[in-house]
Amino acid sequence: SVASAMIGCNSNQERTRSMPSPVSDIPAASPEAAADHFAGKLAFETDCSDVHAAFASGKVDFVLLDVRSPTLFAQSHIPGAINLPHGKMTAHRMSAWPSDTLFVVYCAGPHCNGADKAALRLSRLGLSVKLMIGGMTGWADERFTFEQGVPAAA
User: Fold this and answer.
1) pTM for this one?
2) How far, in Å, CA of 132 to CA of 143, rounded?
3) Strands 128-133 and 82-83: what pairing?
4) Spatial CA neighbour of 101 closest among 127, 80, 64
5) Which of 9, 44, 45, 86 is deepest in the core (most CB within 10 A)?
6) CB–CB of 105/67 below 8 Å?
7) Could you give the C-alpha distances from 96 to 14, 84, 85, 90, 127, in angstroms and in order?
């Protein structure tokens, strides 16, 4: 009957409510804690879309560093990037920029920790840094263009 079907339906709904999904098994953070978390996360990273938008608008208030090898950089890199592998980031080398420069670092992609190593090195040198999440893989996923070769020295 319709009534028994309704009872069965309600019973399923009650069971679903009493057994959380893998998503809700661990309760969500409070809105205040979530705001603190995501604001903090954004203080450490930016994404390919924001970097691209900054270059497209001419409002580039950071230095974009490709921390991969010179060979990989010459094969393909993000337009506007400077190649500086993390192992070459010394206090002397970084003194070429004002101390309040914001550096944005990237490497091959999520499978590579070179950008994390660069961000650690720069922060230990007392410099401001953000990681461009996604790296080359993220840039390609967004269908942004790449450059090849090594830019002429300024």
Assistant:
1) 0.82
2) 16
3) unpaired
4) 127
5) 86
6) yes
7) 65, 12, 15, 11, 12
Q: What is the rounded CA–CA span in Å between residue 78 and residue 144? A: 9
Identity of the residue numbered 63:
V
Check the CA dihedral 20-23-26-30 and report its sign.
Answer: negative
Contacts of 90 (CB under 8 A, 6+ apart): 125
Rounded to whole angstroms, the Cα distance separating 105 from 123 reads 12
pLDDT in tens, 6-58: 455 555 555 556 788 998 999 999 999 999 999 999 999 999 999 999 999 99
- Distance, in Å, from the CA atom of 135 to the CA atom of 115, rounded to the nearest integer, reads 8
SS3 of the chain: the string is CHHHHHHHHHHHHHHHHHCCCCCCCCCCCCHHHHHHHHHHHHHHEEEHHHHHHHHHHCCCCCEEEECCCHHHHHHCECCCCEECCHHHCCHHHHCCCCCCCEEEEECCCCCCCHHHHHHHHHHHCCCEEEEEECHHHHHHHCCCCCECCCCCCC
Q: Over the stretch 23-37, which tens digit does the pLDDT of each residue have?
A: 899 999 999 999 999
